[in-house]
Give the backbone structure.
Amino acid sequence: MSVAMLRLAAGYNRGPVRVKKPSVGALLLGLIPFVAMCLSVSLWDRIQPMIFGLPFNLFWLIAWIVLSSLCMWAAYRVEIARDRKDSGVQ
Amino acid sequence: MSPSAVSLATIFVIVAMGVAIGFLAGVHQKMDLEQWTVGGRGFGAVLMFLLMAGEVYTTFAFLGASGWAYSRGGPTLYIMAYLTLAYVVSFFILPQIWEVGRKYGMQTQSDFFTMRYGNKYLAGFVCVVGIASFIPYLQLQITGVGIIVSIASFDGIGRTPAMAISIVLLVAFVFASGVRAVAWVSVLKDVLMVLAAVSIGIGIPYIHFGGIGPMFAALAHSRPAHLTMPGATANLGHTWYISTVLLTSLGFYMWPHAFGAAFTAKSGDTLRRNAVVMPLYTITLAFIFFVGFTAVLVVPGLPNGDVSLLTIVRKSFPPWFLGVIGGAGALTAMVPASIFILTAATLFAKNLYRPILAPAMTDDQVAKLARVMVVVLGLISLVLAIYKSATLVGLLLTGYAGVTQFFPGVVLGLYWRRVTMRGVFTGMIAGVATVTLLMLSHRDPLFGWSAGFLALCLNFLITALVSWLTPAIVVPE
């Protein structure tokens, strides 16, 4: 058992933690899916035009599943680039 | 053989295969407490992916999502949005949670609260809310298995005996294996699930309407209001959609088991990459919606939407195929149910009972108590499933309203140095009290807003206010 684990077991008050905060760029990229799939619902919640035989709202959400994954891929690149830069500086 | 014998035998074979895989995976390792719960902290990317996917495709997605597409219509789309956005949220919190978890040897969510806020009563409160939220979630899985068996038996077996059998199997499965076994059963379950979803999602609209497009065209013609929000409901409109999607996507990783799963990842980077890939998995939900929407026209007037998927499968396919779908569905209930019951029991023994009531307990005694709790929790959920019925989606939303109240404590705990134990504790109590009050008095949604979301806003507000008013913790370092 490590010291950290003993402290944890004893309810040792560790307090604030130091973690790497996400970069602003990644956060902005993460905001896009929220706007597209959630906040803007009244703009796309309709049946027409039907696309590929799907009601527009369902088509919109399916399309944004793929686009959200792309957004998060971009966010991943941003974070990786920052990590590399940080370790280069040290 | 009668049709019910064929479908039940098929379900039995599939479940037996799943249980066999579980037993085999558990047999080779001796389990101590840590191994039993976090699987030894060494999952690679593939196993991790399967573990997480296994937890996403619950009975809720299979029977509940189609059930709401059938009975509510448009509002069911929230499920697609919330699952995708939950992964977006995970990108920004899970790697950090993993990092502090490794640093301090954490196994559970309540370890996080203990470490960050240093108050065993706050950590105990988190456990109580977590366990209480698990109960409707477990009830959901058991109800699902009951539905599967009673429909597959062509109504020959009642739902109550079916649910009792599923609890016995579940408890045996959990005792014999643990989390690693669950990951291996997920392999079988996921393959079956994806095959099942795709084949019925395309097959059923094709059989009855000649394709997905014609099916939607027919539905848009005869029941246009059903396809948009609020659909067949009076109060599930756009405000409800936004507040519910926010509540559930923020709450997704606040479930103690999902939070705990983050600790089992190989690295923080694995978790980030998962967040990029996992949304794509959500697409298979569309196939499940197709089935529910087709059922609106083909088998109208069912008293309970949650039976619509299996009813239309039974009407459209031979009994053995109903058995395959039922077997996939039963595994889909067993896998997550065993994770929930394991997490809740461990929480009770290790993070609630020992620190608050019996500090002198040994690890061995804690493990024994956890096993007793597996049985107790199983029985509680069984009783609730028998006597208190609700839609599957309704059950899950009840659980979410509870666990999302952890979000301020987790996120501010990671990123805001000034947040205090008293702030988080009062905020969380206010949130949980509000949500309990609103739900027990049947005021969810309140003026169109999800009650859990309103409680979350209040929780955030009070956490921030009280944190500003109380002295910050000074860390000697």
